Amino acid sequence: xxxxxxxxxxxxxxxxxxxxxxxxxxxxxxxxxxxxxxxxxxxxxxxxxxxxxxxxxxxxxxxxxxxxxxxxxxxxxxxxxxxxxxxxxxxxxxxxxxxxxxxxxxxxxxxxxxxxxxxxxxxxxxxxxxxxxxxxxxxxxxxxxxxxxxxxxxxxxxxxxxxxxxxxxxxxxxxxxxxxxxxxxxxxxxxxxxxxxxxxxxxxxxxxxxxxxxxxxxxxxxxxxxxxxxxxxxxxxxxxxxxxxxxxxxxxxxxxxxxxxxxxxxxxxxxxxxxxxxxxxxxxxxxxxxxxxxxxxxxxxxxxxxxxxxxxxxxxxxxxxxxxxxxxxxxxxxxxxxxxxxxxxxxxxxxxxxxxxxxxxxxxxxxxxxxxxxxxxxxxxxxxxxxxxxxxxxxxxxxxxxxxxxxxxxxxxxxxxxxxxxxxxxxxxxxxxxxxxxxxxxxxxxxxxxxxxxxxxxxxxxxxxxxxxxxxxxxxxxxxxxxxxxxxxxxxxxxxxxxxxxxxxxxxxxxxxxxxxxxxxxxxxxx
Length: 527
Known about the structure:
Helices cover about 5% and strands about 45% of the residues. A hairpin with a 5-residue loop joins strand 36 and strand 37 (about 500-510). It has three helices and 38 strands.
């Protein structure tokens, strides 16, 4: 064999090795992002974090205010990096199987993220590790939230500085120079400094259930960042475990075959005290697809029929806009679900929320006019809505709350096609009477909705009582649908201290091609 042939072979081997090495440096890809973030490579070069971008071993992820960034790792794991956080993928190796060579090591300098582990750590648990300036965290196959608060220069946050780890499922091992402890579901460990032993906290700190700002002085327990709560919708399954998808009855007719009843259905009765609900549906407006949503409480004296599976069969009410009447009629029930709103501090289950989705065959009268409905009808209700008196007390106490979704119907478009709700959040200031919200939805054919909204509490509550149109939604960063006027969120709060919320959303928008599209659904949220 000639020297030239040997050189070609050597070059080919080197090229293949280089390709293999390059492939192994990719740790994951950014699934979605709201806000601003940067990726800094091991050589010091920086690039903006964008949807779809590769994240490599050695990259440092730095997020700005009001930012949420989710990375899908190549081993199937998920990382949700929160606002004002600085974390690094120190090393990462995964060749497609758990053969002992896989490894994932992360470091957290400040801030917080949520990790749902993939194949790395499933078999060889020592191959997954997180380090902070004062502690290390190992896993036992888990969903957990490490958080680190650096001390301020003046030590004004001395009682809070240190490393925390909250376990949602599975288990972790929290270690400092002075020892280790095991943590299980719904437990939080704490290490104030590297020479102190880890302790298991008796209560979950407040910053795990409200926005966390680690970017500038103070106690680090307030701000506009993402919540560290266990209800982080970004890493939950798209459908709550308590939600059921039901097969459509093949005998159901595809179109509207009945007009709404002008008399009460059998069993219809006045809604009980503290009942509240919300709904959303698709319709044709002047021959074009559109969507609508709204909320209602016992204060409007609705007449309702609830079925044996807690499904909403019938609703009738009148406000200053006229008659609204929903009748399930011949529609197939495509989805049902329920979940309990929990106490934000103790995680004790408190109040139940029910939701569902009807397919084609329902009918709606809105503003006294029969609507030509399309798509699906979504509903959500609870018997523990927050009363006006209770809301006034929360306002007097200047209470604020950050809410994330814990359950929902699958969003549907104008054709009844289902998609995924990536997340919905609400930041509520009861004292200032303001509501901020964000929604991200992925639909088939790469139709991605990202919306933000800022409005008043009055607009969010009982949206149609005084002609309010809900909290208006506008186009957010990262979506490819231009959201149109009339898109909004409406809802009610749940529990005497507004521990939860129920909401409906509707969005109308245009694709780059000019195609008109819609999406709507309902969501249960926990503070």
